[in-house]
Write a structure and sequence with these properties.
The protein has 9 helices and 6 strands. With 334 residues, it is of the alpha+beta class. The strands form 3 sheets. Strands 1-2 form a two-stranded antiparallel ribbon.
Length: 334
Amino acid sequence: MLIFLTALFLIILILSHEFGHFLAAKISGVRVDEFGVGFPPRLLSKKIGETEYSLNLLPLGGFVKIHGENASEQDLIEDFKRSLRSQTFPKKFFIIAAGVITNILVGWFAFSLVLGLGLPQKILVETTVAGSPADLAGIKPGEIIEEYSSVDTFLKYVDANRGQEIIINGKAVVPRIENPVGEGPLGITIVSSGIGSTPFPQNIWSGLKATFVTLGLIFSALGSFLVSILTGDLSAMGQVTGPVGVFGIIRDTSQLGYVYLVQLLGLISLNLAALNIIPFPALDGGRLLFIFLQRLFGERVLNRRLEAAVNTIGFLFLIALMMAVTVRDIMSLG
């Protein structure tokens, strides 16, 4: 079930991004040669109209091939008038930015749905003091206290049973009669999560505001991350996670309930939007920067071959980074 959820998350997130490019190209009258689910080798395909729809072996996302997108010479493009290269600057910008826009829309939809449904009240163990009754009983940070949804009710229950054995998450623990200064009877700190439902259509507006507040926080965190990397603080790389790390996050979040998974979907989608808009080669932001510079200086200065070379270097760097992050995530699972 967990593997299915992780695959579903990746498919929704990446295919929604690629579908944004696909839809924008279709709206703009640009020819789309292929829309693929997964990555090659190809399992099966069917051509509908001028577009081939394929199902591929590696189920970690998808892709869209827009006509003339990667051709470096005009005479290599079969239908130049309907290629991406021949389009005006606004159309090119729209098609390339559409993936990021779609990721933002997915985030907005997810947040609006979560606000409409509300988040169930949960009590989470935030920290556990070493040597405390909770620590000795095996209660770990991140655990959900399953029997209670109200912090006050749980605290009153623990306080009323000082010196007596109680069961928390199936673990026997004896709250202290006298506890050290700054600690409670169990030696844990707890937090309450959850919100009430917001009526329609107020949840739509609140979801939009939450989307842009979250994007602001993500861009702020990205800025701090990039500054750390550029100043030689490589410890910031520990903040980066890949598909294996996402597997662990989904595993932990699934324990809270499906509404929390929808919230996580929205959060990851907004992270993808923010990452893709960074003006780095091979990312949408890098491609947008390149067409903007082409508009300023012309294709003679910034030609297609140069763009292809820069994007290839950027792509190889991103693949190497993803492999390094994946190896680290696998080692951390062990």
